Amino acid sequence: MKWILAFAISTALPAWGALRAGASAADITPQEWPVRLIGNFGLSLSLRAHDPLHVRALVLEDAGTSIAIAVIDSCYVKRDVLDEAKALASKLTGIPSSHMLISATHTHSAPPSMAGDRTSLEGRYVQRLIDQTAAAIAGAHKRLAPARIGYAVRAVPDELFNRRWFMKPGAIPPNPYGETHDVARMNPPAGSADLLHPAGPTDPGFSVVSVRSAEGKPIALLGNYSLHYVGGITGNQVSADYFGEFARLVKQRLAPDDDGFVAMMSNGTSGDVNNIDFVHPRPRAEPFERIRAVAGRMANHAAEIAASIEYRDSATLRAAEAELELRYRKPSAKQLAFAKAALDEPDESKLPRNAKAYAERALRLEAGPAAVMVKLQALRIGSFAVAAIPFEVLTEIGLAIKERSAIKPVFTIELANGHWGYLPTPRHHDLGGYETWLGTNLVEREASVKITDVILQLLGQVAAP
After folding, report:
1. Are 362 and 336 contacting, i.e. CB atoms less than 8 angstroms apart?
2. Which residues have C-beta within 8 Å of that of residue 48, sequence separation ≥ 6?
3. Which residue numbers in the chain have pLDDT < 50?
4. CA–CA gap between residue 211 and residue 61 (Å, rounded)
């Protein structure tokens, strides 16, 4: 395993009352239409926004050390785009790029965030996303003022359902390569008589970081919850999903008349968890109805937590990151032959579902590089820590990090500092299913083991006295 550590730590002892904080948000709603929406197979074009998209940022400073956390309303953002945004934000603020954690929420109703040609519509959107991300961090830095911070975690299990299920024999269709070895199925028919039991857990921990001014005025609130997204947005409309509605409702509850207050929801380890109750099917909901309901309940929890936690006016701030080399997966000879045949087949009804899309992914992986360097990160904020992983991470990985971390409590933000597909464990690779298919999962079978080991080492570094 090849990895490179970059560790940054302030050696100065934190002075009592030294904490400063600032928060800011920047709009990234498309300004040109139509735009493609990502997060689904096929072409989806949007002509309007149901609700705005934002980048929301929090900057903390104590004893000469600063860190920035930013959350983007996007399905995912590739590393090169985030690296460019960090470089610009660092130039504007002086905060080292290695002290910046930037993640995507994983709304499935946002435009693409990768485009090489900055003169195209999509390229101009990417450039705006970069500029506005840097502007949000710079705006938060500009607002730094004496502050107090509190942290708490509350169990909120009711919104979470593992979406990978063991099924009765014959209840799982072939995968996009025509293979029939899957024993776990993503999103099976709710209420099906073929359901056996979920293939994995959920993580009910709702983590809340609340920041107030020295006088007690709310500055920011950062939530972290392991829920993939909610959905239920019709008409191909742009939307921040429940993440944006949570931010709006928390502001309504905590600081309705303060335009400077910023709330944000980061995504935890939710690669196999969603808001669908597969055992007890619910009646059909109106568009946006479930988003409002879930966001409202989570906002109520956040407001209660913010009102009850203990606040401190200093916080040791540390940041560590590492570059880990992972091998890309390659198609087998049989998969490659199937992919080529699938692309040549004019009648898609003769193929497994999404066969052509996965055929294109297989060919890209076959022609692509052998390995990739991914960035892993850990932040310490006083008595708690944050891990950052650039994948859609299955929940049991996040639970293992929480259990084994040298500093507790800790939570993981997924889709942070890049995106390289899903991250299943070796056990889940053996079970098969959507999250493990070649093209959904891009990197080697042992990737989750290697990533967890490095994350735990980084957490150990930031936990050191």
Report:
1. yes
2. 33, 235, 237, 238
3. 6-16
4. 12
Contact 379, 385 (CB under 8 A): yes
> Which residue shows structure tokens 């199925």?
185
Q: How many CB atoms lie within 10 A of CB 299?
A: 25
Sign of CA dihedral 401, 404, 406, 411: positive
The structure's pTM equals: 0.95
Q: CB neighbours of 368 closer than 8 A, spacing ≥ 6?
A: 328
Whole-number pLDDT of residue 7: 44
Task: Assign 344 to helix, strand or coil.
Answer: helix
The reply to whether 248 falls in a domain is: yes
Please tell me the distance from the alpha carbon of residue 117 to that of residue 121, in angstroms, as a whole number: 9
Report how far residue 207's alpha carbon sits from residue 225's, in angstroms, rounded to the nearest whole number. Answer: 7
Query: Tens of pLDDT along 365-424?
Result: 999 999 999 999 999 999 999 999 999 999 999 999 999 999 999 999 999 999 999 999
Contact call for residues 442 and 365 (beta carbons, < 8 A): yes
Q: Give a yes or no: residue 284 inside a domain.
A: yes
Q: Is residue 239 domain-shared with residue 281, that is, in the same domain?
A: yes
Judgement on whether residues 363 and 214 belong to the same structural domain of the protein: no
C-beta contacts of 330-333 below 8 A and 24+ residues apart: 330/365, 330/366, 331/362, 331/363, 331/365, 331/366, 331/438
Helix axes 289-308, 241-254, angle to 10 degrees: 40
Instruction: Return the SS3 of 337.
Output: helix
Residues 156 and 264 in one domain: yes
pLDDT of 349 reads: 95
Per the structure, the complete domain to which residue 20 belongs is given by 3-160+198-326+369-463
Name 428's bridge partners. none
Are the C-beta atoms of residues 299 and 243 closer than 8 Å to each other? no
